[in-house]
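Why does residue order matter? Because the sequence determines the fold. Keep that principle in mind as you read this record.
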Amino acid sequence: MIEKYQDISENEKSQRENLDMKNFKEERNVAVVASVAEVSQQKLWTSEFKSFSALAKEGKNLKPLRKLFGNFILEKNTVLFPSERGVGKSFLAMQLAIKVAAGDTEFLGEEIELNGNVLYLNLELGDHSIKKRMDTLLGNNNPESKYEAYCFSPRSGFFENVESIRNFCKEYNPVLIVIDNLRTAFSKDNERNHEMSKMIKEINRLKDDFNCAFLVVHHSKKGSYNQLTHSDMQSGAGALTDLVDADFFLRKSYLNIDYRILKRMKSREAEESDSATLLRLNRETLWFEVQEKDVDESQHVLLEKSDAVKEKQRDKANALFKQGISDTNIADEIGVHKSTVGRWRKELEN
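Structure:
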């Protein structure tokens, strides 16, 4: 601009420079408005009204969603993984991340059809714990691969780190993002339907923008250990189950301290199944191994008995007390714990 106005006075030069800057700003604002309008049109286009027949026609050309973990996790799905404390849900999520990034074609007997980079959002474990776990898990299972599983361990919640997650996705294009876990990611907001709806919408926005799947690790309700698996066992807001595409559970078996039951429930994109897989935790490697497929879950869960059944058991125990039968033999006879029989005997004596 200075060379352009060499032959005029300083005052006039300043006025013309200011005018040029004003014109530049106006042109820039027009360009910004046009850009926003274009984006708005794109958003309107993706949300347009369509007839059922048009949707059906488009549906014929859709390819099946690829599997990241059998029908447990399909590509571009948001999946909830609620499980009780101490069951090893974080270990299973970490193992899946390793397998998907390693280029493996199966995990725990379930197909992996889509491999790629994985982001593990660690919001629970400290630096020392996550390093020790990775050392153990990768000790004998760290194959060469063009992909990688990445860990991000912020000390703040999910919403505070959305921009960092977006930047990661732009650079590494992950096929799977694991959030471990929901309670620490969103504090106590997991009890409120409104906040959970907001959270799932943000996750789905990321999922749609970057074509990746989400696995959200969560807790199951307290006191649900003696029930058969169902979707409402997840802790917190009931809206969670309605908003996600699928859910599955990892549960303890009372038959063996290292046994786990893996079972999927809800699925929008795949047929639901009543079958369950029996896993065993290898205490040395910390990896889960398939013990048996298609097991009867009820054989591994101590189901809560009805009041009528409990009363019948107690009446039988009282009759056996009068016969002088020991607590151990009574417990074996009616199928309850010895401590329960002992409590009944004390109550009867008092």
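DSSP finds eleven helices and 13 strands in the chain.
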